[in-house]
């Protein structure tokens, strides 16, 4: 145990390599791994304090059961028995859709969760599945699915080779990158300018990323789609020549031209506030550079036009001649694709366990989070129970008060979490998984959005005292499959591995004539999740095909390369990767033109009320890192940014308390007057509000901040002060598929501001 260990940081999408020094059984130093093939020594503040989460006295080491309104420690046997007893009546009633499943952000950073989450979904048989993706990147999944036929085929900016980068609603110097896995974002962006290229940032705030850029363009929040439409209209000129041979596998260009006809730079200026001449110049920069790319993230996604904005990003890349070309917007070629729902239900049936599944296909298998409270409260077919895995929806969903009332009304709730936080306090049973230093690690999901094709595996540093995630998920799967709390988890481990082998046997030609028994015998790994990982690596893009390609990738080979294996930069994948019916890019998906016109009409009708947006900080990762002293110390970061001109208009000064009010709630927050946000736009970070009763987050409570989602309304509620841009969950085709699912993190919301003196706020808190 003592000595130096190599680990991939699991805290964000950058996947930085870490060197972890252990002395006396404790971590005493974490630094960047200079030999990591991807991050090459880069490290942020979060990664350097990873061990503080492991050592956190508030981290749960044993299960908790709620008794007489209080959470008390319990054994694992007691906890699983309580889960079986609590879910039993709901399952016995016969409606599996009465149980909901929420999957939080940390699940994307853990291969055990990514694999066994599918096992649990299959065994549970509900269609009430919710995930953090629906308040994050879901619009990108939807637009990609509609254009390319595959919601996971998402284009990425080829940062290391581009000469012109246009970013909208992205702040990678704070987020470390998002749906664009690329460690050392500061270095990569600087390198573009240093080699003579140009970085343009479009954002209502002057972020740290905007400071680094060659040009910063301010834009009214929520209008990205309209501005992108104006760019696309300009890029239509000369597009056929730039497309070249790609034009043979593109459909709908004529209809696209008609759809964009009214979106002139002048019209965009009237809505977005971006001068027409600036729009023309940016379009020229994209068209005149052979290696140009457009990239948009959460600021563009979490709006009522998120799916349309995501679609138009790829349209601009296509029309600029940059899609699927080096230096443009390309697609990752990961060692293995993100797994889909595994046929575990078939395996259950083969051993005499029948699950009547009601799962219906939805985009990325998730409903928009904002629908969740509605399902809680419906008299007919309401949610009676909930399983929450690694998430904090009581702080990440809009209209927090309603969300918490919904949790309170449940018959039963289970949380799989390492903290007793604002969400898990409602749980009847909390099941704590090991810390990130007690489990192995492979970025199953994030390498599918990485700008280089890499693979890196990290073994656990410490031994876990309790069961690993795959054991917890397997036990839950057996319980909901009716096998009780005493069922042997090895049943589920065997079924999960065989399900993976069966699916790969059908899709990999070299495995078609091999028996499952033969393939299973070749699999290696110290844990059930690692054995599944080995099977996926062997059958993946660079795999050994279970011996058919002796030089190919296996888990054992990856273990021999602790700093990772680099398979090279992104490379062209179209048209072969397209999964549309005709094998071509659908430039104008059904319903998109109509939705774009609606968005223009909606935005034209908006008034001039102040608009609230969110913001990120490099030391935060949603809500769960606020219990680490080193990440919350110093100046208060949970402040309301107000432009000096707006502050003067509203009689606000530094340190004053502002009342931020909407149709569903209000919060008081200290004001920070700054020119880093545009006039008419105020900014408040998300993920705070750690003053709830019943939690055990001692450090976070000392730095509680306020929860911006108390005042974030959803579409089902009334508009914020009668003019709130409605949250939209139907940006897709007319067939009723779930499409965009904008969330509260950066949703532009019109709000009412009112000055309150600091003394008044202090007195109110004291009372």
Fold topology:
Blueprint lengths: L2 E6 L8 E7 L2 E7 L12 H4 L1 H6 L8 E4 L2 E4 L2 H17 L6 E5 L7 H14 L4 E3 L6 H11 L7 E2 L6 E5 L3 H4 L9 H10 L3 E5 L5 H5 L2 E3 L6 H12 L3 H5 L6 E2 L1 H7 L5 H8 L3 H13 L3 E5 L1 H4 L4 H14 L9 E2 L13 H7 L21 H6 L7 E5 L3 H4 L3 H10 L2 E5 L12 E3 L9 E2 L9 E4 L1 E2 L10 H12 L9 H18 L8 H7 L5 H12 L15 H5 L5 E5 L15 E2 L5 H13 L6 E3 L15 H4 L7 E3 L1 H6 L7 E5 L4 E8 L7 E3 L14 H5 L46 E2 L1 E5 L1 H9 L1
Parallel strand pairs: 6-7, 6-15, 9-10, 9-13, 10-11, 12-22, 15-16, 16-17, 23-27, 24-26
Antiparallel strand pairs: 1-2, 2-3, 4-5, 4-17, 8-14, 18-20, 19-21, 23-28, 25-26, 25-29
Helix pairs in contact: 3-20, 4-20, 4-23, 5-15, 9-12, 9-13, 9-15, 12-13, 20-21, 21-23
Strand order in space, largest sheet:
5-4-17-16-15-6-7
Mean pLDDT: 88
Question: Per the principal axes of the C-alpha atoms, what is the gross shape?
Answer: globular
Uncertain segments: 356-365, 715-748, 756-767
Instruction: Tell me which CATH architecture of the largest domain applies here.
Output: 3-Layer(aba) Sandwich
CATH C-level class of the largest domain is: Alpha Beta
- Tally of helical runs: 29
N-to-C span: 51 Å
Q: Which range does the strand content fall in? A: 15-25%
How many β-strands, per DSSP?
Answer: 29
Oligomer class: single chain
Helix content: 25-40%
Tell me the CATH topology of the largest domain.
Rossmann fold
**Main sheet characteristics:** 7 strands, mixed
| Structure class | alpha/beta
- What's the number of domains? 4
* Radius of gyration over C-alpha positions, nearest whole angstrom: 25 Å
């Amino acid at each position: 145990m003592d000595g130096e260990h190599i680990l991939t940081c699991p805290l964000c999408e950058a996947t930085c390599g870490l060197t972890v020094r252990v002395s006396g059984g404790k971590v005493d130093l974490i630094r960047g791994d200079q030999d990591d093939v991807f991050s090459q020594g880069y490290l942020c503040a979060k990664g350097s304090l990873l061990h503080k989460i492991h050592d956190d006295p508030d981290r749960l080491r044993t299960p908790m059961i709620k008794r007489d309104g209080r959470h008390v420690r319990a054994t694992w046997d007691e906890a699983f028995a309580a889960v079986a007893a609590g879910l039993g009546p709901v399952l016995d009633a016969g409606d599996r859709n009465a149980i909901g499943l929420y999957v939080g952000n940390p699940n994307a950073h853990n291969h055990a969760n990514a694999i066994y989450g599918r096992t649990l979904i299959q065994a549970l048989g509900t269609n009430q599945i919710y995930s953090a993706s629906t308040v994050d990147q879901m619009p990108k999944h939807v637009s990609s699915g509609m254009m390319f036929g595959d919601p996971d085929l998402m284009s990425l900016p080829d940062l290391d080779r581009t000469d012109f980068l246009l970013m909208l609603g992205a702040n990678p110097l704070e987020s470390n990158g998002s749906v664009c896995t690329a460690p050392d974002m500061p270095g990569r962006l600087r390198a573009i300018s240093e080699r003579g290229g140009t970085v343009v940032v479009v954002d209502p705030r002057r972020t740290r990323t905007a400071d680094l850029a060659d040009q910063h363009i301010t834009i009214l929040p929520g209008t990205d789609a309209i501005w992108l439409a104006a760019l696309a209209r300009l890029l239509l000129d000369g597009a056929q020549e730039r497309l070249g041979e790609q034009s043979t596998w593109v459909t709908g260009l004529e209809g696209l031209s008609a759809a964009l006809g009214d979106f002139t730079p002048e019209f965009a200026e009237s809505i977005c506030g971006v001068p027409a001449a600036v729009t023309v110049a940016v379009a020229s920069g994209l068209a005149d550079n052979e290696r140009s790319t457009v990239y948009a993230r959460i600021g563009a996604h979490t709006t009522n036009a998120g799916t349309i904005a995501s679609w138009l990003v790829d349209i601009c890349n296509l029309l600029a001649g940059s899609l699927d070309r080096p230096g443009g917007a390309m697609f990752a070629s990961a060692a293995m694709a993100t797994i889909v729902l595994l046929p575990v239900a078939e395996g259950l049936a083969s051993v005499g366990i029948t699950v009547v599944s009601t799962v219906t296909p939805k985009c990325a298998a998730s409903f928009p989070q904002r629908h969740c409270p509605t399902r809680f409260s419906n008299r007919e077919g309401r949610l009676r129970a909930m399983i929450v895995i690694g998430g904090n929806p009581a702080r990440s969903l809009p209209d927090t008060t309603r969300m918490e009332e919904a949790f309170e009304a449940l018959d039963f709730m289970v949380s799989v979490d390492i903290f007793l936080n604002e969400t898990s306090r409602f749980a009847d049973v909390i099941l704590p998984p090991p810390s990130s230093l007690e489990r192995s690690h492979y970025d199953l999901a994030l390498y599918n959005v990485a700008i280089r094709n890499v693979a890196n595996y990290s073994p656990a540093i410490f031994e876990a005292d309790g069961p690993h995630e795959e054991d917890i998920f397997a036990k839950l799967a057996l319980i909901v499959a009716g096998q009780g709390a005493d069922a042997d988890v090895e049943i589920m481990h065997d079924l999960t591995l065989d399900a993976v082998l069966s699916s790969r046997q059908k899709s990999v030609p070299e495995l078609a004539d091999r028996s499952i028994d033969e393939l299973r015998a070749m699999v290696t790994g110290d844990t059930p999740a690692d054995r599944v990982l080995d099977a996926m690596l062997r059958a993946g893009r660079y795999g050994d095909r279970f011996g058919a390609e002796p030089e190919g990738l296996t888990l054992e080979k990856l273990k021999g390369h602790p700093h990772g294996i680099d398979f090279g930069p992104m490379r062209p994948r179209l048209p072969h990767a397209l999964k549309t019916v005709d094998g071509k890019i659908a430039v104008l998906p059904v319903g998109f033109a109509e939705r774009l016109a609606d968005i223009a009409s909606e935005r034209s009708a908006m008034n001039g009320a102040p608009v609230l947006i969110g913001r990120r900080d490099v030391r935060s990762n949603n809500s769960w890192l606020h219990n680490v002293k080193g990440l919350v110390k110093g100046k208060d970061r949970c402040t309301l940014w107000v432009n000096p001109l707006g502050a003067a208009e509203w009689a606000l000064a530094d340190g004053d308390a502002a009342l931020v009010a909407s149709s569903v709630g209000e919060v008081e927050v200290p004001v920070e007057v700054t020119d880093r946000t545009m006039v008419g736009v105020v900014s408040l970070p998300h993920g705070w509000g750690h003053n709830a009763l019943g939690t055990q987050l001692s450090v976070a409570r000392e730095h509680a901040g306020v929860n911006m989602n108390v005042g974030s309304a959803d579409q089902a509620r009334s508009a914020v002060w009668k003019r709130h841009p409605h949250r939209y969950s139907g940006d897709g085709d007319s067939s009723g598929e779930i499409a965009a699912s904008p969330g509260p993190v950066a949703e532009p919301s019109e709000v009412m501001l009112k000055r309150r003196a600091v003394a008044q706020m202090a007195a109110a808190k004291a009372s």
